[in-house]
Write a structure and sequence with these properties.
Strand order of the largest sheet of chain A: 4-3-6-1-2-5
Strand content of chain A: 15-25%
CATH architecture of one domain in chain B: Roll
Helix content of chain B: 25-40%
Largest sheet of chain B: 6 strands, mixed
Order of helices and strands of chain B: HEHEEEHEHHE
Radius of gyration of chain A: 25 Å
Helix content of chain A: 40-55%
CATH class of the largest domain in chain A: Mainly Alpha
Largest interface: A-B, 39 and 31 residues
CATH class of one domain in chain B: Alpha Beta
Number of domains of chain A: 3
Structural class of chain A: alpha/beta
CATH architecture of the largest domain in chain A: Up-down Bundle
Largest sheet of chain A: 6 strands, antiparallel
CATH topology of one domain in chain B: Flavocytochrome B2, Chain A, domain 1
Shape of chain B: elongated
CATH topology of the largest domain in chain A: Four Helix Bundle (Hemerythrin (Met), subunit A)
CATH superfamily of one domain in chain B: Cytochrome b5-like heme/steroid binding domain
Oligomer: heterodimer
Distance between the termini of chain A: 25 Å
Number of helices of chain A: 15
Number of strands of chain B: 6
Chain lengths: ~450, ~120
């Protein structure tokens, strides 16, 4: 499974190197003749590689249900997207500077003239505009100026579209990254991938990819968590999914104080055998706060499923250790409900880490499930009493953890802490699976 | 990674600012803006300098002496040599096979400007 994910990621990076290979094939002795020509060559190289990374990042932004599977789920896919974007920005910032510096060999006035040519030089200025748009739409992704709000981040990130088009205009006008017309061919193919992905995103995921549901029940799980039950509008058009998957849900109630018509990702906590979907939502932002008081009968759209937290055809006898923190209990709850619905035995040990008893979500149901399912064990870990989870705690509660695959879902600090403990105890990286719900 | 990206972002704008500052402080070189005072040459004058030992070209109404530049040009010398002593705008605009030279290349010509083409 993990080898697959690595292969999928490796393929994306290998694809990014295709223009680079053609570029290198086109190099000649004169590209290395002087400092200036080496800088110039590096300037062109960073441009070509940066554009390749940018277009591949665009291609990966298409959210196609199922496409995230080989990558190990949508959050892992986005991790690659994020790295590609970071790489593209770094390379494309180096690109004009290297070219400008290279020109200094012919006069100290030249770097600035290269960077800021007359305004009718569309090729250069489209490149500048693309780069500045990149800085704008990537600034919130890397929290340049503080942690962004999700919806605003999303709107700003849409500037990636014009940035990609301007970057392509820039490249086609210069078309000197690769020998002869090869570069038109290669960039067209890459552009097709990127533009196709964005078109898919706009057309498919907005229209064809969404299923209509309506909220049939709203139940308060805690004072800041609700569980919504969603019923398909047409029984034949309901979501097929695996326990632990997540969906994008768009509520269509104009009376909501925030988030009407906005899509947000939520983990399903129902068993896939149920026809209704259940989603537990914690108040973490404007939209998830507003949804706490959503009225039954509200129409919603559901897109998915995404994620591959648990193995697709997981064997129930496979021994597993689960570590959940806070609302990160949802994928495990889904799995336990599914075990129970199927009447299956399991071999799982769930450690649920929460601040105190009052914040243990679904505590009673979890206890009941652990009792009803053969082979399921449950341990609560209270931060106020025991402090952060320690390696000793893990070993004491789960002495055979070296035989278990571990699944972690919870806040990043907990996630990292448990991973560090497990690595310290000699568990190999591939035996640890995590689901991150902080996407930035 | 966030910190690294932010550092790179600041480094980029610092470098651009440095280049601008260097340019603002360095004395204006070349013959920019002094077209009126430049000597006039005819295509016949240019044609006398048609070897690598002395290579002049007429490009978009201006005359350049590229003798010292040819060894620095990315291509082997014979590529530019073909244009020595001639009206070479086409060579500059098409590189002989299609695409224009970059703005960087156009800007690089300035130090080699020696005059204007007589009508």
């Amino acid at each position: 499974m993990k080898v697959n994910a690595r292969l999928a990621r490796g393929l994306v990076w290998a694809l990014a190197l295709v223009p680079l290979m053609f570029f290198l094939a086109g190099l000649a002795a004169h590209d290395f003749r002087s400092v200036s020509s080496v800088l110039n060559m590096l300037g062109r190289l960073t441009g070509a590689l940066g554009l390749a990374l940018l277009l591949l990042a665009a291609a990966l932004s298409a959210r196609v249900p199922g496409f995230d599977q080989p990558f190990g789920g949508l959050t892992k896919l986005w991790h690659t997207h994020h790295l590609l974007g970071a790489g593209a920005l770094l390379l494309l910032m180096a690109h004009p500077l290297l070219l400008a510096l290279a020109s200094a060999a012919h006069g100290y006035q030249l770097p600035v003239k290269v960077l800021f040519p007359p305004l009718d030089d569309i090729a250069t200025w489209s490149g500048w505009l693309a780069l500045i748009l990149m800085m704008i739409f990537l600034a919130p992704s890397f929290s340049f100026f503080g942690q962004p709000n999700y919806e605003r981040w999303k709107r700003i990130h849409a500037l990636a579209g014009p940035a990609v088009i301007l970057a392509l205009v820039h490249t086609f006008l210069f078309s000197r990254t690769m020998p002869a017309n090869l570069d038109i061919l290669i960039w067209s193919l890459f552009a097709l991938l990127g533009v196709g992905a964005v078109a898919w995103r706009l057309v498919f995921s907005r229209r064809a990819g969404r299923l209509n549901y309506s909220i049939s029940a709203v139940e308060a799980v805690a004072n800041n968590v609700v569980e919504l039950t969603l019923e398909p509008k047409r029984p034949d058009k309901h979501l097929q999914y695996q326990a632990g998957n997540f969906v994008y849900m768009t509520p269509l109630d104009k009376q909501l104080s925030a988030g009407c018509g906005e899509e947000h990702p939520y983990t399903l906590c129902s068993s896939p055998t149920e026809t209704k979907l259940r989603i537990a939502i914690k108040d973490l932002g404007d939209a998830s706060r507003a949804i706490q008081s959503v009225r039954p009968g509200t129409e919603v759209q559901v897109e998915g499923p995404y994620g591959r937290f648990f193995p697709v055809n997981g064997k129930p006898e496979q021994p597993e250790l689960w570590v959940a923190g806070g609302i990160g209990i949802t994928p495990f709850l889904a799995r336990l409900r599914h075990f129970k619905a199927l009447g299956q035995a399991a071999n799982v040990h769930l450690i649920y880490a929460v601040q105190d008893e009052a914040r243990a979500l679904y505590a009673d149901e979890l206890r009941d499930l652990a009792q009803a399912i053969t082979g399921a064990k449950l341990t609560f870990h209270y931060f106020y009493r025991e402090g952060p989870i320690s390696a000793d705690f893990l070993l004491e509660t789960c002495p055979d953890l070296s035989q278990r695959e571990t699944y972690i879902c919870g806040p990043l600090p907990l996630n990292k802490l448990v991973q560090d403990h497990l690595r310290g105890l000699g568990r190999p990286r591939y035996s640890i699976h995590t689901e991150e719900f902080e996407l930035l | 990674m966030k910190k690294f990206m932010f550092a790179a972002f600041i480094a980029f704008w610092s470098s651009v600012a440095t280049l601008l500052a260097v340019q603002a402080m360095s004395p204006e070189t070349g013959l920019d803006g002094a077209d009126g005072e430049l000597p006039e040459f005819t295509l016949a004058d240019v044609a006398k300098h048609n070897t690598l030992a002395s290579c002049w070209m007429a490009i978009e109404g201006k005359v350049y002496d590229f003798t010292d530049y040819i060894p620095k040009h990315p291509t082997p010398p014979f590529v530019m040599e073909q244009w020595c002593g001639r009206e070479a705008t086409e060579g500059m605009r098409t590189k002989g096979y299609g695409p224009d030279h970059t703005p960087a290349a156009w800007a690089m010509m300035e130090p080699y400007l020696i005059g204007v083409l007589a009508d």
